[in-house]
Amino acid sequence: MPSPSPANSTAPVRPETVASPVKALGVAAMVVTVVLWASAFVGIRAIGPHFSPGSLTLGRLAIAAVVLSLLVLPQLLKSRLLPKGRQWWPIIAYGVMWFGGYNVALNAAEHVLDAGTSALLINVNPILVAIMAGFFLKEGFPRWLIIGSLVAFAGVALIAFGSSQASPSGERPTADVAGVLLCLLAAVLAAVSVIIQKPVLRKFPAAQATWFGIMVGALCCLPFTGQLVAEVQAAPPAAGWGLVYLGIFPTAIAFTTWAYALSLVDAGKLAATTYLVPGTTILISWLLLGEIPTALGLVGGLVCLVGVALTRRRSRQDPGTGPAASS
Questions:
Q1: 289-324 burial, b if ≥16 CB within 10 A, otherwise e?
Q2: CA distances to 20, 213, 246, 290 from 273, in Å
Q3: What is the pLDDT of residues 91-107, one digit of tens each?
Q4: What is the span of the domain harbouring residue 251?
Q5: By the 8 A CB rule, do 117 and 298 touch?
Q6: Are 206 and 29 in contact (CB under 8 A)?
Q7: Sign of the torsion formed by the C-alpha atoms of 100, 106, 112 and 114
Q8: Does residue 190 form part of some domain?
Q9: Is 135 exposed, middle or buried, given 0-12, 13-18 or 19+ CB atoms closer than 10 A?
Q10: pLDDT tens by residue, 189-234
Q11: CA distances to 44, 75, 86 from 64, in Å
Q12: What is the dihedral of CA 55, 56, 58, 64, to 10 degrees?
């Protein structure tokens, strides 16, 4: 067999060839995140009667911190890569807002809202992320990202409206004004946190950036320690195991896979994929909790899926793999 020519042996590697495995890993990380975050809404709803919002947040974060420390601490001992000075400010910010405030608000909301409705209302978040990423991260405003986000948000509105209607038997509607407002607060806190976290991921690995934030959030929730101890003692074993699940899978694992995907993909485009969370949540909640969505809710879920599909389209000005040009 003839030896390769010098031209062949020194041929440059095409960028798309290098990017393909990385892109595949990013997609896989996002799929894991979507499924686990969807299960979190159901898990919170299931064990919520046994835990108050603050103690549930502290328990979840404490478990996640212990699990992630097994991965992160050996890395830190080798690299000695710790935030210094002002590098702590964005970490503290998203630790307080996302891991602390977001979780407390969501836990409180799910005391009065079903899992599917909560997940759908939280999905104001991707639109906020897309807008803020365009302004602050200079990702621009791709035409199909904006169109798809608006379509998906229309689906969210349909589900929220359908869930707010009283049933024919006169039962209390699924949606509660306080719960809706808490979900919207959680969405805002999450959106701001995504924008703040993105630059941190250029300096620190995903697992470390997640662990730092979890530790900050857990410290903020320490005042709920006494409440958590009392509620764990009173809760049935199934609720205790549910808390362990929430700490390991939707928190330690899912927030790390999210951070990893965020380090590879534009924040606006990545956030748009979380429109898949509500549909997954509704399915899991239907199967495990018997929470049957309304007809409008199902229609809204389909509209959300259409919106996600539209966000993945590329504008004509964007033939490559990068973000679409602003329109």
A1: eebebbebbbebbebbbebbebbeebbeebeeeebb
A2: 19, 22, 21, 26
A3: 999 999 999 999 999 99
A4: 54-311
A5: no
A6: no
A7: negative
A8: yes
A9: exposed
A10: 998 998 899 889 889 999 999 999 999 999 999 999 999 999 999 9
A11: 15, 17, 25
A12: 160
136 contacts 85 by C-beta, under 8 angstroms: no
Counts of helices then strands in the chain (DSSP H, E): 16, 0
AA identity, residue 259: A
Domain assignment present for residue 214? The answer is yes
Q: Are 275 and 306 in contact (CB under 8 A)?
A: no
* Three-class SS of 59-120: HHHHHHHHHHHHHHHHHHHHHCCCCCHHHHHHHHHHHHHHHHHHHHHHHHHCCCCCHHHHHH
Query: What distance in Å separates the CA atoms of residue 117 and residue 176, rounded to the nearest whole number?
Result: 10
Residue 166 has pLDDT above 70, yes or no: no
Rounded to whole angstroms, how far apart are CA atoms 92 and 260? 19
Q: Which of 277, 244, 297, 284 is closest to 42 using CA atoms?
A: 284
> Which DSSP letter does residue 9 get?
H
DSSP assignment of 11-22 equals PPPPHHHHHHHH
175 Cβ contact list (under 8 Å, min separation 6): 113, 117, 160, 163, 164
In a domain, 34, yes or no: no
Question: Per the domain annotation, does 27 fall within a domain?
Answer: no
Instruction: Enter the pTM of the model.
Output: 0.77
